[in-house]
Amino acid sequence: MNTHPAVTVIMNCHNSARYLREAIDSVYAQTFKDWEIVFWDNASTDESAAIAKSYDAKLRYFYSDSKVPLGKARNYALQKASGKYIAFLDCDDVWLPGKLEKQVSIMRDKPGTGFIYTNYFNFDVKKNSKTLFLDHPQPEGNVFTSFLSFYPVGILTVMLSREHLDKLGKEPFDETLTWSEEYDVFMRMLYKTPAAYIHEPLALYRLHPQMSTVTMNMESRMNEICYVLNKLRQLLPNFDAIYAPQLKSIMATVDYCYSIE
To answer: Does the global pTM surpass 0.85?
Structure first.
């Protein structure tokens, strides 16, 4: 096995056996083959371990004895990653076969690019139907300001340059966050990192009753969004003045979500 694959696929798992094999199989079905999976099992008690361990050495399995916030679990997994590029796949989602090939091609053709995201399908399990998430092309290059107004990123579609990610430190994910850990990292990264976008849908985001976005506490999620915005205020000079229109839009959404909780 290649000990320094081009891509490390981060899979963080907690009791995700139901759809897990389909998710892992979608990585093995990729047309681009130079990858590893770093599988971080966050104290699962179901059949997740048995499923993950049934694969070959390209899947590297790690187990945590105690459940930790997702931000901390992602850092644990990143510490085991050896790829030049980092991608993320949650255990109930699926990649389409050309995802990694198309993203690696852009990374190699445009060396300054540190972040690639794509369109994807929402797949509704109950209705057995899929719908396109983004109906028109999204911004590329310096996307920070645009993303404050509308954040079009699904983590299942993202590929990062490890070189750019490491500029945020050895533990880039905020270990206190459970719902917004990727938003925090990506927004801090994208303040200086150019992004590329692929409008072709290259993944399926599974909508089902057990998914975390259904079971989450909305107030906790909004508290985390406000926490991330405060972090950006501390990092970026004149943040409130420069991005006033975007912040007004965000806070209107936050206030609405608080009101319906």
So the answer is: yes
